[in-house]
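Task: sequence design from structure.
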């Protein structure tokens, strides 16, 4: 004002006019007060969602009739369908420990073998080499340094020694080597296979981990390996060899059997459990699924009886004697071997020692054939070892076989030879005495322990960033596979030539699939490799992610434009990964006045309704659907992560409801507006335990006054359930069903275990977990008509976000949780999320899932240490009593436990300074910020049942639907190119898969030249529990009407074969009109040619 006084009058007039116009301009660019009041009081007007779309009307069913066959699974009946259940076996086991800390295994007295008449014993000597695709070196380093030399030596030495044999398992290395060798060498390899000298066992891309791996990814890498073997060697693996995973899942035995394998070998089973099996003469058994009442899933399993698969532990029960029969002597090697060259002077003594060990080993089995593997990690990488092992064993074979009193026949062989002998003996024994049949076992073999106080339950949760990354890559590979197949079939439908692009896409997806397969290796997804090897796995995952995005972007554009616009590709992913060590980031979509197209792809075979979350650059916009309808939407704040309660003024979260068909692409257009649209709902925001809430005056959010010292509970609801939070701790306290007023205690806290010897593999806490957060957290509450969000900041370690959806109905009963975890400063600590409920599981029994495929009952042993009671949770866990079930669904794998009645905890992350002496040679300190996602459902039974007796369980139908959202989320892609050509929905299939049938695989196969070789369709009839309400479903339940002509009405199918899981065996030929019938829980595989 002083400045104006000093001006002349005419100057003052001009200045006032300028200021006036400037103020008017600013005012005109701000929402008027009426608009601000109107949109801050959204609750005074109902949400206008409009009528349900034709997509939803077509499939909506409320409480449909359930299939009696499915319901019988969870009805009355035996707990399992086997002679032996591992659930009971663990409670019969005596965990006796020897003085050296090893678990006690009974050893027979040698005197019993000094009788004059001994039964004929057949001994199969089987050279092998275990080749980890990454552990202490990267996969490429191992290949260059050792694996390719092993394979080169194999060809030369098996040719030189025509009675010697060898087995190989890891297809990843075999394929790398095959691409380098001459055609003449390939001829020799095929000849060795025909002669039976070389057997390929298991045959997947890798020997996968069995705790954290999801069955979808395991099937994918199994198909990849088996298809490669069939294409290049024309063989199908008959036997599985999985000697190094740290425990065994019955899901894997099912997958091996469905792939055409008849027998399997495992090694890392808790040694005390092996002792219990031995007492029942059950170290060999038929492994049956718990839900299988007919024995259709049986596969014969051999459990190697002693501690490891090295020569030290394979000749017999005395490792110090066995060390004398490892004849590798390479200058510079570190070795425990005591083997000496066999000469005339020591031949008799050596043979005597060895044959006694063989006799002793036979004592552990029901028959008179034993398997003696001769090998270890990366063995036979030097030619000299082949000579040393072969020549010395040949001398021993000739001598022992020549001693009639020993009555022994030793021969070189493979797994095929061993199991052939065993099953021949089995047939003879059963003919004489039915009681001599091998037992049937159900269950799994977790946890694994090799020594007292050394339980391998830590790796279930080690390096969760990578476990989550792998699951994300699995989802985008599934999506890219589906879209690539749709691209091929639509191009044929449009009479366009798909071959060139098909080859490009097939190459990208093959690389992506093999990268994920590599990560499934039992030192990859487990997090048990050296840190630089972990970085290598992360680079493989990032490349896979980027390769899939390239395919998805292109195909979405092609299908939306009906093949008109191939280039340039203008669609971009809404979520990106900028590096292999960063979390995925949501792109801020710059919404234009002329419109920004956002397309969503549904990778599920069922229609879905979901609220989507996008980051946009404007709070004032309008959303238009492909049917030209205005879509109601809610705008939420994006909080400044650097400050407690500060709202960003240039980024907003936009949420709205998407209704989309199976395998469909649905576009929406976002328009930037000068004024808020009536379809726009601004959220209400509250900050608790802080004195400030900083929001720009230009923002339309309904701001409640900050509550720095709130004492009243925080209560939010979505008209279906009500959540109550403690304002001082930020913890969720209880959940109320608003229809029945039933209240379920659900108290969520974060705690830490302090390590006293934990490492990458081992979980060994000092004692019970303690609360992590003594400080009062900042709580931010966002409420609106579509979604309510409670965000609790336990800085600097965890940001805990709880989300309730108000629409659609099948998501309103679920509580969605996201934890952003950063434990970089927590040394030698292991962080857990614990739920305390009022579920009355007084026997401490609960369920965890096995690889996302099925559920198995667990029971906590109160007298055992905490780490002994941890189990893998690949995607879900269930707590239940006679009336109520609490289901925890997870988007990524964890370790989990129930240590007290009504309690469930999952381990979120672990930072461990020290090595746990299992070979890795370092701790786990490469900690990254990690996001874990969960959903919780609380369900009441429709009637009391006896399901508590069953050793298995199934999710309810609503839980299956929520699980699909977590495991296969909608994918979003956007473009600012203004073109009507993109603005129509793509609905490639007119019919939905049943709610209980998932498309595990819908991918095009290719030959070695990347030519189309048919389409793999693998369907899974998932189990569901009939004792819980079905609610409103958007899909039918399984019935007799499913067929390929109904599913793919508009797509031309020329041939359909039902096959083995990996498509190497044709079971039968189908017509498109033939009905598809899949038994509950089962997988069905089809090779379809479009």
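Answer:
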């Amino acid at each position: 004002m002083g400045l104006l006084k000093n001006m002349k009058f005419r100057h003052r007039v001009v200045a006032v006019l300028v200021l006036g116009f400037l103020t008017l301009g600013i005012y005109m660019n701000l929402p008027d007060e009426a608009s601000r009041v109107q949109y801050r009081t959204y609750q005074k007007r109902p949400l206008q969602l409009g009528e349900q779309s034709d997509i939803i009307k077509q499939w909506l069913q409320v409480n449909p009739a359930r299939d009696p066959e499915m319901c019988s699974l969870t009805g009355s009946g035996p707990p399992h369908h086997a002679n032996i259940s591992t659930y009971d076996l663990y409670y019969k086991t005596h965990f006796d420990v020897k003085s050296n800390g090893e678990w006690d295994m009974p050893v027979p007295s040698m005197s019993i073998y000094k009788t004059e008449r001994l039964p004929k014993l057949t001994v199969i000597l089987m050279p092998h080499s275990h080749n980890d695709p990454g552990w202490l070196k990267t996969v490429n380093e191992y290949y260059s340094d050792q694996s390719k030399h092993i394979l080169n030596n194999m060809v030369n030495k098996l040719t030189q020694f025509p009675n010697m044999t060898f087995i190989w398992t890891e297809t990843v290395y075999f394929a790398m080597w095959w691409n380098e060798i001459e055609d003449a060498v390939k001829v020799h390899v095929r000849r060795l296979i025909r002669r039976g000298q070389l057997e390929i066992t298991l045959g997947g891309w890798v020997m996968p981990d069995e705790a954290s791996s999801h069955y979808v990814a395991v099937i994918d890498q199994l198909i990849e390996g088996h298809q490669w073997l069939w294409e290049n060697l024309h063989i199908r693996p008959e036997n599985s060899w999985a000697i190094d995973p740290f425990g065994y899942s019955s899901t894997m035995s099912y997958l091996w059997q469905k792939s055409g394998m008849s027998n399997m070998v495992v090694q890392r089973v808790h040694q005390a459990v092996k002792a219990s099996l031995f007492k029942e003469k059950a170290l060999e058994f038929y492994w049956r699924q718990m839900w299988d009442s007919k024995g259709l899933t049986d596969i014969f399993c051999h459990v190697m009886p002693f501690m490891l698969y090295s020569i030290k532990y394979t000749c017999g029960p005395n490792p110090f004697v066995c060390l004398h029969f490892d004849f590798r002597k390479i200058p510079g090697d570190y070795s425990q071997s005591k083997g000496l060259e066999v000469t005339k002077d020591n031949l008799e003594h050596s043979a005597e020692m060895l044959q006694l060990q063989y006799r002793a080993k036979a004592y552990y089995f029901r028959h008179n054939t034993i398997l003696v593997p001769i090998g270890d990690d990366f063995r036979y990488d030097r030619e000299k070892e082949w000579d040393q092992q072969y020549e010395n064993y040949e001398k021993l074979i000739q001598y022992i076989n020549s001693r009639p009193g020993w009555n022994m026949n030793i021969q070189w062989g493979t797994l095929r030879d061993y199991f052939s002998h065993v099953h021949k003996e089995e047939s003879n024994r059963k003919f004489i005495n039915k009681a001599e049949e091998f037992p049937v076992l159900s269950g799994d073999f977790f946890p694994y322990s090799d020594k007292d106080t050394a339980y391998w339950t830590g790796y279930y949760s080690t390096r969760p960033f990578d476990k989550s990354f792998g699951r994300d890559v699995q989802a985008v590979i599934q999506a890219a596979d589906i879209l690539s197949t749709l691209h091929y079939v639509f191009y044929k439908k449009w009479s366009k030539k798909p071959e060139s692009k098909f080859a490009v896409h097939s190459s990208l997806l093959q690389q992506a699939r093999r990268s994920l397969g590599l990560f499934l290796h039992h030192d990859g997804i487990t997090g048990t490799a050296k840190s630089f090897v972990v970085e290598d796995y992360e680079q493989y995952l990032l490349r896979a992610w980027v390769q899939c995005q390239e395919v998805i972007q292109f195909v979405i554009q092609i299908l939306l434009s009906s093949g008109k616009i191939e280039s340039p590709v203008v669609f971009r992913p809404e979520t990106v990964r900028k590096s292999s060590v960063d979390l995925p980031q949501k792109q801020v979509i710059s919404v234009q006045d002329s419109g920004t197209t956002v397309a969503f792809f549904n990778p599920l075979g069922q229609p879905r309704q979901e609220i989507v979350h996008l980051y946009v650059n404007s709070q004032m916009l309008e959303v238009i659907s492909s049917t030209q309808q205005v879509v109601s939407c809610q705008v939420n704040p994006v909080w400044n992560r650097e400050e407690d309660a500060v709202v960003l003024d240039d980024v907003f979260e936009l949420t709205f409801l998407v209704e989309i068909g199976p395998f469909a692409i649905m576009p929406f257009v976002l328009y930037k507006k000068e004024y808020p649209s009536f379809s726009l709902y601004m959220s209400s925001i509250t900050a608790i335990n802080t004195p400030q809430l900083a929001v720009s005056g230009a923002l339309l959010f309904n701001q409640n006054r900050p509550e720095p010292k709130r004492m009243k509970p925080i209560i939010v609801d979505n008209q279906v359930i009500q959540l109550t939070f403690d304002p001082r701790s930020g913890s969720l306290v209880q959940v109320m069903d608003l229809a029945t007023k039933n209240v379920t205690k659900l108290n969520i806290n974060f705690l830490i275990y302090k390590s006293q010897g934990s490492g990458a593999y081992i979980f060994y806490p000092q004692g019970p977990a303690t609360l992590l957060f003594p400080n009062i957290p900042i709580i931010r509450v966002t409420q609106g008509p579509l979604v309510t969000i409670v965000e609790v900041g336990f800085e600097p370690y965890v940001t805990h976000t709880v989300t309730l959806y108000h629409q659609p109905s099948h998501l309103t009963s679920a509580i969605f949780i996201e934890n952003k975890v950063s434990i970089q400063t927590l040394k030698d600590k292991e962080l857990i999320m614990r739920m305390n409920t009022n579920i009355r599981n007084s026997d401490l029994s609960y369920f965890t899932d096995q690889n996302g495929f099925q559920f198995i009952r667990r029971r906590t042993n109160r007298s055992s240490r905490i780490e002994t009671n941890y189990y893998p949770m690949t995607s879900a866990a269930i707590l239940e009593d006679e009336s109520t079930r609490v289901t925890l669904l997870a988007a990524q794998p964890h370790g989990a436990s129930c240590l007290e009645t009504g309690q469930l905890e999952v381990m979120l992350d672990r930072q461990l300074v020290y090595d746990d002496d299992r070979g890795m040679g370092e701790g786990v300190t490469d900690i990254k910020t990690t996001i874990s996602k969960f959903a919780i459902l609380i369900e009441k039974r429709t009637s009391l049942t006896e399901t508590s007796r069953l050793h298995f369980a199934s999710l309810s139908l609503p839980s299956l639907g929520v699980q699909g959202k977590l495991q296969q989320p909608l994918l979003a892609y956007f473009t600012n190119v203004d073109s009507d050509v993109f603005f129509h929905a793509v609905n490639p299939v007119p019919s939905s898969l049943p709610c209980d049938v998932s498309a595990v695989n819908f991918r095009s196969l290719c030959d070695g030249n990347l030519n189309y070789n048919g389409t793999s369709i693998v369907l899974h009839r998932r189990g569901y529990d009939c004792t819980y309400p079905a609610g409103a479903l958007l899909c039918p339940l399984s019935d007799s009407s499913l067929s390929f002509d109904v599913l793919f009405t508009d797509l031309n199918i020329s041939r359909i074969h039902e096959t083995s899981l990996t498509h190497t065996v044709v079971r039968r030929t189908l017509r498109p009109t033939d009905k598809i019938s899949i038994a509950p829980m089962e997988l069905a595989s089809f090779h379809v040619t479009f």
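The two ends are 81 Å apart (CA to CA).
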